[in-house]
Design brief:
There is one protein chain. By secondary structure, the protein is an alpha+beta fold. The chain has a single domain, classed as Dimeric alpha+beta barrel (Alpha-Beta Plaits, 2-Layer Sandwich). The protein contains three helices and six strands; from the N terminus they run E-H-H-E-E-E-E-H-E. It is flat and about 35 Å long. The two termini are about 20 Å apart.
């Protein structure tokens, strides 16, 4: 089964990406996690996302709004597409994700289109 792992990071963690004092630890944790996940052979795709201020929402008939749009405690920071045997296997990897300590990892099986 394919599962999307959506990584919602805390505002503080997203700020750590560019903070000179915190960036080495932030990126070090992510490198270790990405290396381990890559070595597992489960990754089918994924990427980190640019800062939330670069987001755009397109609604209705092409109305485009700059983001972010709401004062939230978490922002979407990236995603992986995993090929796993069970949702429990994806849950194990989600729990190991650096963002799980202060953010939320959403797991969602991909929809198989009929026909």
């Amino acid at each position: 089964m394919q599962v999307a792992m959506l990584i919602h990071e805390s505002v503080e963690d997203i700020a750590a990406r560019t903070d000179a004092a915190r960036a080495p630890a932030y990126w070090g944790a992510w490198k270790a996690y990405v290396d381990a996940l890559g070595a597992s052979g489960l990754v089918r795709g994924g990427a980190g996302l640019e800062l939330p201020g670069t987001a755009r929402l397109v609604r209705g008939r092409g109305q485009v709004l700059d983001g972010p749009y709401a004062e939230t405690r978490e922002q979407l920071g990236g995603f992986f597409l995993l090929e796993v045997e069970t949702l429990a296997e994806a849950e194990t990897w989600a729990a190991r994700c650096p963002a799980a300590a202060s953010g939320t990892i959403e797991l969602r099986p991909t929809l198989q289109m009929p026909g």
